[in-house]
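Revision sheet: C-alpha cells.
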Amino acid sequence: MAKEQEWTPWYRRKEYKGNLTEEEKRHLDSFRLEEKHPAAAVEDLPEEVQGYLSELELAVYDAKQDGVATKAFVLTGIGALVIFLAYRELGWLPPLVGYVTGGAIIAFAWVNYSREWKKNADGLWIKKKGRGIPFSRTEEKLQEYWELDAISRFRKRREAEIDDDLG
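Predicted:
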C-alpha cells in the first residue's frame, strides 16, 4: 500500500513553478496558521452557490471516473481481440503468446482501473485535519484565489514602500 503523502499548500508543492519568493511564501503561511483562513469558506457562501460548487466538483469527479472506466473497457476489448485472434490463429503471434499477451492486457486494464479509481476517489476530499488544511478541493481553490490576491496586494504595498524610500 502506498504511503499517504502529507498535505502541503499549493505554493509549497514540488510541481509549483511560480515566482513567489520565500518571504511571500512565509506571508501566505501566516494565513494558513491562523485558526480560520481569511478566505471565504464554502459554508459561508449562499446555499445556491454551495450547491452549484458541489455539482461542479462531482461533475469533474464523474468525468474523471468515466475516462478511467472507458480506458479499462477499451483495453479489455483489445485484450479480448488478441485472445480471439490467437484462438483462431489469425494473428501474427503464436497462439500461446497471443493468449498470454491478451490476458496481460486485460489484467493491466483492470489493475490500472482499480488504482486510478481509488486515486480519483481519494482526491475528491482532503482527509487530513488541522490548522491551515482546507476541508475540500473547492475550499482549497477559494483559499488559493484569496492568497493570490493577497500576494498581489503584498507586492504593491512593498513597491510603494520602496518608492517612498527612494522618493
